[in-house]
């Protein structure tokens, strides 16, 4: 079972004698914290990390994978996710009803537990696939920045696929794996990969995209764009 890291914090005073909290080496004023020490604007720029065990799981919907990525990312920071359906919906650009439906399904299948307003991951993804042969699997986790997962012009599948491409490209290297490989990684059809790739290109989310034709083969080479880290 995944045991989220506890939030380590201590009281300190800044130069104006205003009591603050030091978390992860940064100072935050009390007035931007709620009673449970969850930052009101904490998640706006968080990068979602989605473990390969979530990404590869064909039993999870695309929206569930994205939602679990948020919960997993917050598990190591706050230990839980206390955002409402509406707040998560605004962050991930999903309808609140979809967020609620996904959360109920994840709770029923044992991926999440709910205590009051807090949602906590209950699965240890590092040991989730121990019974399976992982030697042939691509065990890359993916990361999705705010500019992608909050983009209202993108479908959830496109967001996950951009994260897949960027996990290798990182804005300077070519991603040239076949569509079949990307489809296996996301547990979707090859046709979906083709459609989403075309859409991402048309929306300007590739720095470079080219198709190289060879003898009886075509190879797509993709470099993702880089977002400012401010």
Any overview of this molecule?
- This protein has 230 residues and is of the alpha+beta class.
- It has a domain of 69 residues: Orthogonal Bundle (Arc Repressor Mutant, subunit A), CATH 1.10.10.
- It has eight helices and nine strands.
- The chain has a three-stranded antiparallel sheet, with no helix packed on it.
- It starts with 8 loop residues before the first strand and ends in a 6-residue tail after the last strand.
- The N terminus is likely disordered.
List the helices and strands and how they pair.
Elements lengths: L8 E5 L5 E5 L2 E4 L18 E3 L1 H4 L6 H14 L9 H8 L3 H13 L3 E4 L2 E4 L20 E3 L1 H4 L6 H14 L9 H8 L3 H13 L3 E9 L2 E8 L6
Antiparallel strand pairs: 1-2, 2-3, 4-7, 5-6, 8-9
Task: Please count the beta strands (DSSP E, at least 2 residues each).
Answer: 9
Fraction of helical residues: 25-40%
> Largest sheet, if any?
3 strands, antiparallel
In the CATH classification, which architecture of one domain applies? Orthogonal Bundle
Query: Globular, elongated, flat, extended or rod-shaped: what is the shape?
Result: globular
CATH class descriptor of one domain: Mainly Alpha
Task: Using the CA coordinates, give the radius of gyration.
Answer: 19 Å
Quaternary structure: single chain
Annotation field: number of helices: 8
């Amino acid at each position: 079972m995944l045991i989220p890291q506890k939030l380590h914090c201590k009281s300190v005073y800044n130069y104006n004698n205003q009591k603050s909290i030091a978390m992860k080496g940064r100072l935050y004023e009390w007035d931007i914290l709620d009673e449970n020490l969850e930052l009101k604007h904490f998640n706006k720029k968080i990068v979602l990390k989605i473990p390969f065990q979530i990404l590869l799981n064909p039993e999870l919907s695309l929206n569930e994978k994205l939602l679990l990525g948020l919960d997993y990312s917050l598990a190591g920071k706050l230990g839980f996710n206390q955002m409402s359906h509406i707040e998560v919906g605004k962050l991930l650009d999903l309808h609140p009803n979809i967020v609620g439906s996904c959360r109920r399904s994840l709770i029923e299948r044992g991926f999440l537990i709910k205590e009051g307003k807090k949602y906590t991951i209950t699965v240890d993804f590092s040991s989730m696939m121990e019974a399976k042969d992982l030697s042939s699997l691509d065990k890359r986790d993916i990361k999705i920045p705010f500019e992608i997962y909050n983009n209202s012009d993108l479908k959830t599948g496109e967001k996950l696929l951009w994260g897949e491409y960027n996990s290798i490209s990182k804005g300077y290297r070519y991603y040239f794996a076949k569509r079949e490989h990307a489809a296996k990684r996301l547990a979707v059809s090859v046709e979906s990969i083709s459609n989403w790739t075309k859409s991402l290109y048309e929306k300007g989310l590739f720095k470079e995209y080219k198709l190289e034709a060879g003898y009886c083969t075509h190879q797509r080479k993709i470099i993702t764009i880089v977002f400012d880290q401010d």
